[in-house]
Design a protein that fits this description.
The chain has 336 residues and is an alpha+beta fold. Helices cover 62% and strands 12% of the residues. It folds into 2 domains: 1-169; 175-320, Heat Shock Protein 90, CATH 3.30.565.10. It has helices at residues 2-14, 19-135, 141-168, 181-191, 193-199, 215-231, 267-270, 288-298, and strands spanning 177-180, 202-205, 210-213, 239-246, 250-256, 303-307, 313-320. A hairpin with a 5-residue loop joins strand 6 and strand 7 (313-320). Helix 2 packs antiparallel against helix 3 (141-168) and helix 4 crosses helix 6 (215-231). The relative contact order is 0.07.
């Protein structure tokens, strides 16, 4: 550029113009030349930037195309998974329906079988007792002992059948009504009056709520828990404390005793039918807690316990505030 300016200066000097005009003209040409250089640089830079942007745009478009293919594959997979879940849900609903029917049939069979067993069992017990009364003086010690085994076995079997009938009928359709749990507890204490008197049991209870529930089931629930607390008492007279805590959607009832305690490692087993996990010297069939669990489930709740051997047991169970007839069971959190 400097060479061009020098050549232009020589050209101006050859012209017949004043020195001041010559310098002014040269200055204008110099500025114009610089502006041309600047514009040339901008044009080249713009072209280069455009090329970069075009490359970036092409690369972005390619990446978007690849991403679109990935999204399409993901959508296909999600659609397949959705169909699979829908199919599995239908199968699960069908299996659940079959399970409910099987459970209802099993309950009905259990009830009928237990009911039909009562008559022959009564006959066995009756004739065994008759043998013991009429021929006790004519039989040797072994025969007398054998008859005693028959009588005790028949009596125990009768208890099992009674509890099985109670368990089978625990969730049969009943009238849903407003129930005052204070009145339920009062009736239970009357029913257990002899046991309470003989053991000098002390039952302390706070104010209990009124709920929508099933009268017979709630009586069974409280009576089984209190009867267990009395049956499995320690050296001290039974001391039972009952209280209620209000939660958002349910009531939590707490029953505390000072009895022999219950091993927490058998928590699941303790609520299964015919399970006796400790203190086998005490009478019973192992159905009490199973019946309690079934009744609590019927009231859309959960039941559990905390215990230390020799330090008593605390039972917790929940009863729904929103119970409706034939409403599906749901679980509630276990809050101590």
């Amino acid at each position: 550029m400097e060479n061009a300016i020098d050549a232009f200066r020589l050209k101006i000097n050859s012209l017949k113009i004043s020195e001041s005009d010559s310098e002014e003209l040269l200055e204008l040409v110099t500025k114009f030349q610089k502006e041309l250089s600047r514009m040339d640089f901008q044009v080249k830079r713009t072209v280069k930037d455009k090329s970069i942007m075009v490359n970036l745009l092409n690369r972005t478009i390619e990446e978007l195309r690849l991403r679109q293919k990935d999204i399409e594959k993901a959508n296909e997979e999600l659609h397949f998974q959705k169909l699979l879940v829908e199919t599995q849900s239908e199968k699960l609903a069908e299996q659940l329906n079959m399970l409910e029917k099987s459970f209802a049939e099993l309950e009905q069979f259990s009830y009928i079988a237990s009911h039909d067993l009562k008559s022959p069992l009564r006959t066995i017990a009756s004739y065994a007792g008759l043998l013991r009364r009429r021929y006790s003086n004519e039989l040797d010690a072994d025969a007398t002992e054998f008859i005693e085994y028959i009588v005790r076995g028949a009596s125990h079997m009768n208890e099992i059948i009674r509890d099985l009938l109670e368990y089978s009928g625990a969730t049969k359709s009943r009238k849903l009504e407003k129930i005052d749990l204070n009145e339920v507890l009062s009736l239970v204490k009357q029913n257990l009056g002899v046991e309470i008197s003989e053991t000098t049991a002390k039952i302390v209870c706070g104010d209990l709520p009124s709920i929508m529930g099933y009268q017979t089931g709630l009586h069974q629930l409280f009576q089984n828990l209190l009867a267990n607390a009395i049956k499995f008492r320690g050296e001290e007279p039974p001391n039972i404390n009952i209280s209620a805590k209000e939660r958002e959607r349910f009531w939590q009832i707490v029953v505390v005793d000072n009895g022999l305690g219950l091993d927490e490692s058998f928590h699941e087993k303790a609520f299964m039918p015919f399970q006796r996990i400790s203190h086998l010297d005490r009478p019973g069939t192992g159905m009490g807690l199973a019946i309690c669990k079934k009744i609590v489930k019927m009231h859309e709740g959960e039941i559990w316990y905390k215990s230390m051997k020799g330090e008593g047991t605390t039972f917790y169970f929940t009863l729904s505030k929103e119970l409706e007839g034939n409403k599906a069971f749901s679980n509630f959190p276990k809050e101590a």
